[in-house]
Amino acid sequence: MAKRSSLFLRIVEGKNLPAKDLTGSSDPYCIVRIDNETIIRTATIWKTLSPFWGEEYNVHLPSTFHSISFYVMDEDAISRDDVIGKVAIAKDILTANPKGVDSWMCLSEIDPDEEVQGEIHLRIEVCGESSMRKLRCHVFEARDLARKDLNGASDPFVRVQYNGKTQESSVVKKSCYPRWNEVFEFVLDDTGAENTLHVEVWDWDLVSKNDFLGKVAFNINKLLTIQQKEGWFLLLPDKARRRETEENLGSLRLQLRLRDESVLPSSYYQPLMELLLQSVKTTNNGEKGHLLALIDEVTTAENRQEVATNLVKLFLGQGLAKEFLDFVMNLELDRTTEPNTLFRNNSLASKSMECFLKVAGMQYLHNILGPTISRVFEERKYVELDPNKVEFREAGCSGLHRCHTEADIIQQSAQCLQSYLTELIEAIVNSVEQCPSLIRATFKQLFRSVEERFPQDPYRNIKYIAVTSFLCLRFFSPAIMSPKLFYLRPKHADARTSRTLLLLAKAIQSIGNMDTNLAREKEVWMAPLQPLILQGVTLFKDFIVKLIDFEEEEELESRKRVTLQTTSTIKEGYLLMHRAKERGILTSSHFKKHYFCLNYEALCHSKMSNAKTSACIPLSKIRAIEKVDEKCFGSAYVMQIISTDGRGQFEIMYLQCKNVNELNQWLSSLRKHCVSNEQMLNSYHPGVFKGEKWSCCHQKEKAAPGCDKTHFGVTLQEWNDPLNPDLESHLIYRQLLSARDLLMEKYLEYKVKNNVTGPGSTDEGMSHREHIVYVCSWLRAGQSILRGTVLHCHMWVP
């Protein structure tokens, strides 16, 4: 049984933040940490005390995590970023709210005594004869301690306290992974007056006072029954030192939902898989889809996106994505009476197609939109067509030979937008051959289905709009407006660039609607783009005709078993690389720029993106993927890849990323595709080997065992995640289970409606009744399928 925890988090907005800049404002951003590991950095929202982020993330993490923390920071271009405040949420709070947490939370001041992290390895035992028993504390080592000094490390020592007496260890200089191996003894108090042993870790400072690094407390009465206790213990904050503050630091609105899953082997989910596959396959009497129809009926608006994602991935893995989408599209077509509203709501069909495009077409999207989006970001021109929003200062009208009138600014803006829009339209209409065959086959079927449902001449454009409503309105246009959310850019756009992108997205949306009159009536100031939009409508119609013009062999090819590997590339981009050598001092100057490409077999790199690959590391040879201490190279964004060569010897490659988001995306991608490797390391060195010792723990042997445990639990959910059919089946089962009461109502409804009393009922009634009974019976069988898990339930007997 595989255990898995997933955390959905949405960083919505902040309000009433304190001003940190001389201008009376701040430039806030958020950092998210799972325990001690930074996993997310939001975009910076400039010059505001009430920022809106609206960033969503799904994080897979180990069930052993303790808390999640949100740090609100103020970005400074010159000095170090200021800490505004934090919100810390314990795992227990998330577990106690299975439906999730959605509320405003007040920011608290950062208390140094609470900013602790790491673990300490101890053995506590009671020894000696009953007349003179002693309490012995063996302090071995610690790992991942907080960094309190400017050099990016600490000078830790241990303070052991019992029965009013205190003993201290030696100080280990410049290490967050100290090794002491010292023993402390105390005479055991038989009176029971003192029953607690305190072990504290401190950072020694020569000038200022020592910094608290964490503590562990042991109950001696409990220890007497077991005589000895040894292991790694989590260092805890000293709440007694906590300072209360009345200063208002503002608040943060967060949405979080934690789920723990127990995923069983494939055989347990086979009945559900067979039911789902039967739903998209036509039977002898022409029936299909009862289970999917039921799922569509009982799925609520709150979980429709999740259900759609699970279904798309499951049918992709079975090579039936086209058939699944065809079925849910026809469900919506059958209940649509007004063609102009087709696929405009957030139905299961719309959500499923939206998810399918992101999974199967993301690389296609990047190839088509990427160049123009990058150009907009790089040129960063001031663009505005709405006279009510023109800002002369932003347009740069104060200098010589600059435009001074509103009309001049709008004219220049129109020329700039026309250039961008022309480039976008040409890229899209010329991309027929680049579009994945599976997407083309799916749109071909959609085009035909809509044409059959609305053959009347007044609705001749509906079949085109059905395709563009997904391709433009739910794929191209959102990606243009928010490129970060589609992995086109590492950061959100600033206000100026964002306005340009919004106007371009509006234009593409108008083309997708194929109703230019409506656009002119709503926003008259968009008139300078109308000729291009009109031309775009014609070009897009031709594009769709070519897109669905499929040869039979190509369509059959697209029906083959398809997984998320719609492209061989998982992730690619430029990184700074350095390979560890036997000799020499490591510095950031040794890093060389290389282009890296991660596929499903290896991590390859070359000097240029279009150059021949110079070297590859097979994924099967990777033994660990971990971060490197900031002090090693003067950067917090360095990771190491530990692999074996042909002789079985360890090699280390160091890669430097641009920011924490890029670092975690590479870590996440590599970890997810190496998680099943054999002989993965349990420990590693977060430092580097230089000066004949490891910088982290000061061990002098290069082959010495690692001083910190490896991390494989925390990964980010992305569009190119590997398929997990067992998990998808499990999540669909859970959705059905949560809707079991509604399913029973549907069964009773059909029973009454069709007067179902026994085997002699009508074929239609019997068919639906039998199918609902089958679904309910299978859910009832879930008691044995998931016996002993959190999903154990009591079902009804139809």
Q: What features would you describe in this structure?
A:
- With 798 residues, this protein is of the alpha+beta class.
- The protein has 5 domains: 2-107 and 252-259, Immunoglobulin-like (Sandwich); 119-241, C2 domain (Immunoglobulin-like), CATH 2.60.40; 264-307 and 725-798, no CATH class; 320-558, GTPase Activation - p120GAP, domain 1 (Orthogonal Bundle); 569-716, PH-domain like (Roll).
- Helix content is 35%, strand content 24%.
- The protein contains 20 helices and 28 strands.
- It has a 7-stranded antiparallel β-sheet with strand order 20-19-18-17-23-22-21, covered by helices on one side. A 5-stranded antiparallel β-sheet has the order 7-16-1-4-28.
- Strand 22 (638-644) and strand 23 form a beta hairpin.
- The radius of gyration is 31 Å and the shape is globular.
- The chain starts with a strand and ends in a 13-residue tail after the last helix.
Give the mean pLDDT.
Answer: 83
First-last Cα distance: 30 Å
Name of the CATH first level of the largest domain: Mainly Alpha
Total count of helical runs of at least 4 residues: 20
Classified in CATH, the superfamily of the largest domain is GTPase Activation - p120gap, domain 1
Strand segment count:
28
Q: From the 3D coordinates, which CATH architecture of the largest domain would you assign?
A: Orthogonal Bundle
Global structural class: alpha+beta
Measured by DSSP, the beta-strand proportion falls in: 15-25%
